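Quick one, tokens below:
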């Protein structure tokens, strides 16, 4: 039942965006005046559970809930608790999520009780004023309280930071020491050309090859084979004893080892983050109480998974590579 794409890659990782809504408006991710999907267009929690279950039956071993901000979806913990049955059965190796941290104080304990063992928290600066500026609506103290609650609940936290030239590049050494000092791994990510925003991404873009060279003036970075199932390449930082990951879709894409597909809250399956080709799974999901049509639609979609993306950021290419915002497919 394993899903294998045309290039021999085993698809074992599903990222599912449970909502396109978010309580932040990060400047590199979305416009401030966003038009979100009508609630009637969203799959129900029961439909999301059914879809995820079919993917698990077809070989998915890692499931990540994303958004938007997944924890703003109404009754989201009902879905998490339902999906946790696959952890108990052994069919699923990991159930996790990526969050901005704003709701973690409320949900950290419930997530841990449901079998979630680690989470990613997106955090681009430790400066409260800069944090409010880049998120437009966010407050750093609320995220910090969420991280405290997550660690108190026993969740392993990894910090994700988008590297932005002229904004947080000089903060990276301090953020690294802070994260590792609290026992948290950290991953830095290149900004990606997705969706229309109110800024020029060429002004934001910082190649991670440049950032790594800057960090190596202060730290000893040693490449290690550690993997979490995602696209990050990791180094060990001798001075802190922690791990630092680099996600480089622009300077060194990770397509050759891509093991994932992305499902939206409307039932659209994207086989590649950086391509527009997609498959509608909502129609076969609703066409029958059985899963034969849905399973066939998934197989057909996996058979179209491309070799890689076509991301470009430069002065000649100032339009996004794909028109949908990151919040639609959750990164």
């Amino acid at each position: 039942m394993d899903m294998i794409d045309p290039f021999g890659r085993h698809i074992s990782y599903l990222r599912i965006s449970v909502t396109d809504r978010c309580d932040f408006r990060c400047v590199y991710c979305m416009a401030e005046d966003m038009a979100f999907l009508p609630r009637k267009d969203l799959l129900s929690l029961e439909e999301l559970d059914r879809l995820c279950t079919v993917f698990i039956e077809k070989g998915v071993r890692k499931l990540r809930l994303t958004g938007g901000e997944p924890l703003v979806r109404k009754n989201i913990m009902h879905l998490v608790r339902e999906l946790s049955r696959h952890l108990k059965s052994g069919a699923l190796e990991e159930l996790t999520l990526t969050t901005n941290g704003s709701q973690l104080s409320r949900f950290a304990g419930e997530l841990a009780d449901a079998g979630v063992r680690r989470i990613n928290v997106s955090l681009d600066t430790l400066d409260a004023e800069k944090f409010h500026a880049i998120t437009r609506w966010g407050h750093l103290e609320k995220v910090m309280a969420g991280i405290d609650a997550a660690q108190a609940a026993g969740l392993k936290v990894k910090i994700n930071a988008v590297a932005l030239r002229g904004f947080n590049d000089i903060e990276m050494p301090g953020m690294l020491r802070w994260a590792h000092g609290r026992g948290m791994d950290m991953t830095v990510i290149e900004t990606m050309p997705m969706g229309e925003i109110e800024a020029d991404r060429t002004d934001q873009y910082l190649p991670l090859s440049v950032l790594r060279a800057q960090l190596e003036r202060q730290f000893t970075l040693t490449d290690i084979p550690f993997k979490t199932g995602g696209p990050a390449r990791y180094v060990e930082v001798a001075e802190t004893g922690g791990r630092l990951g680099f996600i480089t879709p622009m300077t060194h894409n990770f397509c050759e080892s891509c093991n994932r597909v992305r499902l939206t809250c409307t039932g659209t399956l994207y086989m590649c983050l950086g391509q527009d080709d997609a498959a509608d799974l909502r129609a076969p999901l609703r066409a029958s109480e059985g899963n034969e049509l849905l399973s066939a639609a998934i197989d057909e979609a996996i058979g179209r998974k491309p070799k890689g993306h076509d991301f470009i950021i430069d002065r000649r290419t100032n339009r996004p590579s794909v028109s949908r915002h990151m919040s639609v497919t959750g990164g």
